[in-house]
Amino acid sequence: MEKLERLERVLGGMNFKKNVPMRDYTTFKIGGECLAMVEPASAQEVMLALETAAECGIDTFIMGNGSNLLVSDRGINKLVIRIAERMSSVEISGNTVMAQAGALLSSVAKLSVSRGLMGLEWASGIPGSIGGSVAMNAGAYGGELSDCIKRVDFIKNGRFYSDAVEKGDFGYRKSLYDSPDITVCGVGMELCPDNGGAAERMREYTAMRRAKQPLAYPSAGSTFKRPEGYYAGALIEGAGLKGFSVGGAEVSTLHAGFIINKGGATADDVKDLIFEIQKRVFEKYGVMLETEIKYVGE
Questions:
Q1: DSSP string over 205-262
Q2: What is the pLDDT of residues 205-259, one digit of tens each?
Q3: Which of 11, 87, 177, 206 has the CA that lies 20 to 30 A from 144?
Q4: pLDDT band at 28 (very low <50, low <70, confident <90, very high)
Q5: Choosing from 85, 190, 276, 292, which is the catalytic residue?
Q6: Is 209 a catalytic residue?
Q7: CA 163 centroid distance within chain
Q8: Please, which pLDDT band fits residue 298 given cuts at 50, 70 and 90?
Q9: Could you tell me if 127 and 106 are in contact, meaning their C-beta atoms sit under 8 angstroms apart?
Q10: What CA–CA distance (Å, rounded) separates 41 from 110?
């Protein structure tokens, strides 16, 4: 209690809350309580939260919009540092876009198109934050965030860095910024002048997403990474698992690459369903599906 009281004294200006139900902060709508949560408004506040937690002997967990997370039903016994609305400013000058890590990728994409730029049309409708999108090198419809990133602002081992990126920093749904030691605080991107078709492409991608993805139900997006030479959804459907469920978790009948929360799903339901999918797909095709979503908690 004394440690939590100290955290609250120092971090009270960051929307400090105790015993927060994580299901309220994830798109899966699943998860038990965390020890406490803060929402910083700057890189300096992120550093203060990390430093104070370390001094108190309390572990930390960094999250953004919670769109790629499966949180344990037993919760997270950590200080959750949520980089979201309070740290979401976006500035556009010419072809350069500067965005704080809490800005939603889809919002940045829409804003860039409205300012006469192209390069992020594929991101329309993606629910993740910029910080999480950088860490996992988010992408869709042939585009990836690494195509336009020029600089990343981040904290590593208590120090702030603003570094130019290199091609080898990113891979398929991964980057060197996806590390427990690194917290992404912002990003600088270089886009291109609109060739006249950006708005239409964005409308087309949005329509495709609405037609093919189960947006009416809580989920964490694509459950599995795309295996080389295959599509995860096609393998799962081929294994006869479309509509298969465990408890409240179900393989979407609209798109087999998504696990949805049909109502009352627990993290254990989702984990058991993932295991069954991996098992059956491997038995039929000899392909081991690797999860794209991240499991956190006790």
A1: HHHHHHHHS-TTS-EEEESBPPPTTS-HHHHHHHTT-TT-EETTEEE-SS-TTEEEE-
A2: 999 999 999 999 999 999 999 999 999 999 999 999 999 999 999 999 999 999 9
A3: 87
A4: very high
A5: 292
A6: no
A7: 22
A8: confident
A9: yes
A10: 23
Q: Which residues pair with 285 in a beta bridge?
A: none
Q: What's the rounded Cα separation, in Å, for the pair 24 and 66? A: 9
The verdict on whether 222 is a catalytic residue reads yes
Q: What amino acid is encoded at 254 in this protein?
A: L
Place of tokens 């479309």: 242
Q: Is there a catalytic annotation at residue 151?
A: no
Place of tokens 């950590």: 78
pTM above 0.90, yes or no: yes
Q: Compute the average pLDDT of residues 75-104.
A: 98
Residues 6+ apart with CB under 8 A from 44: none
The one catalytic residue in 173, 175, 250, 252 is: 173
Please list, in sequence order, all residues whose beta carbon lies within 8 angstroms of the beta carbon of residue 109, skipping any fewer than 6 positions away: 120, 121, 122, 123, 124, 126, 202
What digits encode the pLDDT tens for the residues 125-169? Answer: 899 999 999 999 999 999 999 999 999 999 999 999 999 999 889
205 phi/psi in degrees, rounded to 5: -65, -40
Tokens of 262: 């049909």
Contact 28, 266 (CB under 8 A): no
CB 296 within 8 A of CB 34: no
